[in-house]
Specification:
Blueprint (H helix, E strand, L loop, with lengths): L8 H14 L8 H23 L17 E4 L5 E3 L4 E2 L6 E7 L3 E7 L6 E10 L2 E9 L13 E5 L5 E3 L4 E2 L3 H18 L6 H35 L2 E5 L1 H4 L8 E2 L5 E2 L3 H14 L1 H15 L2 E5 L23 E3 L5 E3 H17 L11
Parallel strand pairs: 8-11, 11-14
Antiparallel strand pairs: 1-6, 2-4, 3-4, 4-5, 6-7, 8-9, 9-10, 12-13, 15-16
Helix pairs in contact: 1-2, 3-4, 4-7
């Protein structure tokens, strides 16, 4: 018997029937869930080959063992059912419903909000010891927001999470650092536990809990910040983060005698931590999605020189990373990040080719 080596998505899907016969344990899994596993594999390979094609260097899709497999998906309405009878749970704003999962049974679900629109897929996900049911739904497009006459340029920075071109700041939430300290302690405790021990298992759990808390706090912060921006501004201009790439190590600097000068490396090292905290690309993605729904415009500009030019006169005003103030001979005095944000807004206007717009509507 010859065997086909290049198996595609559809062949694999067809083979499921035989696999189930050969390996009865697979009969305990809902068939649509199994099909989705093949779809995930297909997506992983599609992404891999797309990135290879684009000249990137992606990692080869790896086998997802049981420790890495934290979710499964019902790709359509089959294999599960939501019980219509909902009862309020003890916690405010949460209702309890029964969710029937094929081959698994009925589980109790705490519904944190109403499910709007038509449910397309259901994913059951585990995070540490918490299980989640994630419904993806299709909803009609809502009406765009009334036009705002305020625009904003945003500098995603170090001393502030974000500086806005109107002089306002969005600050780093303090609780990130606090949670980070807790995480560091939990990780250290974990490193002291013996492999395979019960205490180690518990320590792993605690680390996972910390990670989960940080991730949730971050997401909550990003959702609130992006919502506020989209509610308030019509045109929102960001730097293109792929170009910005702050995480790169700065080059060493020497003076004329060969002595090494401070190059801001320590400032940047401290900054990397903040970047990890900051999750700017998630923020810009959230703003983009919310803006699309609200009828707002989001622009990404090349941040080249935005930290060095004067937003007032366009002159180059060189600054080290440690210099927090922009002071120009044209008389402009600004926080350096505010100055950058103003430049970013102007670049955004250039890109939109609308010139500088009036801040209030004119008939
Ligand atoms: Zn100037």
């Amino acid at each position: 018997m010859t065997r086909e080596y290049a198996l595609g998505y559809y062949e694999q899907k067809r083979e499921l029937v035989d696999i189930k016969e050969e390996r009865p344990e697979y009969q305990e899994i809902a068939s649509h869930v199994l099909q989705d596993v093949i779809l995930r594999l297909k997506r992983a390979y599609d992404d891999f080959f797309r990135r290879v094609h684009n000249g990137e260097q992606p990692g080869y899709p790896r086998f997802q063992g049981r420790n890495r497999y934290d979710s499964f998906t019902y790709p359509d309405g089959a294999g599960w059912k939501l019980d219509a009878a909902a009862r309020p749970a003890a916690k405010k704003g949460i209702v309890r419903v029964n969710l029937k999962l094929s081959k698994i049974g009925t589980v109790k679900l705490h519904l944190h909000r109403d499910i709007a629109g038509t449910i397309k897929t259901l994913t059951i996900k585990r995070e540490g010891e918490h299980f989640y049911a994630i419904f993806t739904c299709e909803i009609g497009k809502p009406d765009p927001f009334p036009t705002s006459h305020e625009d904003v340029g945003i500098d995603l920075g170090v001393s502030h999470y974000a500086a806005l071109s109107n002089g306002e700041f969005i600050d780093h939430p303090r609780y990130f650092r606090k949670a980070e300290k807790k995480l560091a302690a939990a990780q250290q405790a974990l490193s002291r536990k013996k492999r395979g021990s019960r205490r180690r298992k518990k320590a792993v759990q605690r680390v996972a809990t910390c990670h989960r808390k940080i991730a949730n706090q971050r997401k909550d912060f990003q959702h609130k910040a992006s919502r506020k921006l989209v509610n308030q501004y019509q045109v929102i201009v960001f730097e293109d983060l792929r170009v910005k790439n702050l995480t790169k190590a700065p080059a060493a600097k020497q003076d004329e005698n060969g002595k090494y000068l401070p190059n801001g490396a320590s400032a940047k090292a401290g900054l990397n931590k903040s970047i990890l905290d900051a999750g700017w690309s998630t923020l810009t993605a959230m703003v983009s999605v919310k803006a699309a729904w609200a009828g707002r415009t989001v622009v990404f500009v090349n941040p080249f020189l935005t930290s060095q030019l004067c937003s007032g006169c366009g002159a180059v005003v060189k600054k080290d990373l440690s210099e927090r103030w922009h002071s120009c001979s044209c008389g402009i005095e600004l926080d350096r990040d505010t100055n950058s944000a103003k430049l970013i807004l102007n670049l955004g206007y250039q890109q939109l080719s609308v010139g500088t717009r009036p801040t209030s509507a004119t008939a």
